[in-house]
Amino acid sequence: MKTMIPIDPASTQAVTSLGREQPRDELSLHGETLARLRDYIVEGNIPDGGRIPERQLCEMFGISRTPLREALKVLASEGLVDLLPNRGARVRQLSEQDLRELFDVMGGLEALAGRLACENITDHEIADIERLHYEMYGYYLHRDMPGYFRVNQLIHQKIVEASRNATLLATYGSFAGRIRRIRYSANFARKRERWGEAMREHETILDALRRRAGDELSDILFRHLRQKRAAAVEHLSEGAAATGAPTSTSSTP
Amino acid sequence: MKTMIPIDPASTQAVTSLGREQPRDELSLHGETLARLRDYIVEGNIPDGGRIPERQLCEMFGISRTPLREALKVLASEGLVDLLPNRGARVRQLSEQDLRELFDVMGGLEALAGRLACENITDHEIADIERLHYEMYGYYLHRDMPGYFRVNQLIHQKIVEASRNATLLATYGSFAGRIRRIRYSANFARKRERWGEAMREHETILDALRRRAGDELSDILFRHLRQKRAAAVEHLSEGAAATGAPTSTSSTP
DNA sequence: ACCATCAATATTGCATTCAATTTTTGATTC
DNA sequence: GAATCAAAAATTGAATGCAATATTGATGGT
Question: What share of chain A is helix, strand, coil (3-state, %, to 5)?
Fold first, then answer.
């Protein structure tokens, strides 16, 4: 057994600072832990449905269980983990249904963002997005999927930012995090045949944005996300078929 | 020194049943406390910007600080409370800007709900909503504001439920809770002159729903919420003017 | 061999304790 | 009498302790 010794302030400080490159004004261990644990999970360090080892993570982060458990409750409310009474926390496994729902909500949020962006976006911001659009087109022509994907995400992000709605931005970010795990978990890539279609959709997005046609952009963005949804669900079921992992949340013991 | 008041299971169960999001058989003190504290705050038992007395609430709920503090972190992530480092938790005071943002997000979620509802709603559900609509019209004719308001909320709830998207439903509920505080805090009532307009909007909502015109319903619902937004912001600024309370979040000490 | 049973062990949920702040109080000075 | 400041008290953030609950592993019966 370990002999717990009262820790003097100096050593506590040392433990806290381990692994931290930024001396940010993060005052609370809770906030720090929350961000670190969320990243840890979103980046896929724990497999889908995998148990979250409290004690181990405490040692890893150099903290006690209290702030870690607080972070777990928050992540559970965000939908990233499941909390099983007396049986610990597990990384939430998304079913196909979950994924469809999540993409539809993302679609709704982007549709809203597009609508609001048309009300608030500046010419300068549109020019920015146009630049990104042509950069993305370049990646498309060169068949550079990772580059395309990165800029694509950036364009959507810029539209949400142009909505001038911090609440929407935060909500969008939270949902994006829940979906992002999937991308890390495997080489999530749009089917080739859909790629050209997506590129054309982006043309119409840019066009509606230029004309500041809110209703129209709203519809286009929702449908665009529906296409992404189809690709994601397809990807998930293929991945499940390959590994034999269940895709439904119905856990009958 | 401490007079802990043990709570019998029956009473806690009763309080829990007020909760919306987690209708499961809550075993954990954390989940129980979360629901209770959320209701306590949403119902306006603590004034806007007011300090949340940890110790007092612990005694009130008959629990220790650990589960209460866990609940506070979750409520902070939901946007209901602010966590000030070393200075405790406070009920989040909504600025006019916050309120505008919240109503726009609600508008986006309802617009999405309307779109999805048109894909999934059954004839039976439409008939249900029609019935509610005419019931609401009755309240309108009798100038029964509370009755109107209650059924109005119910109609919107039914549309969100008809979307068949549990994620959307939960998110909608969470945002509704953040706004609901305002309603409790004062006699939030739509201006008379806008009442007729709102009633007409509901006619078009029902019409679009009957025709299952998703794009159209989506637009109508967003605009409908924009009207509500205007009323809410107006109400907030009037209330602020009356009490002399600040409406902005900029807290310069 | 296979499966049930039960003790040993580990983990969880919450309470309690402790150090570090912040807030309040009360004396003191101008 | 108002302003200032130090000591006391209260409050907060986090660590640790402990009972209750799961999980594991050994044992014995079929």
Answer: 70, 5, 25
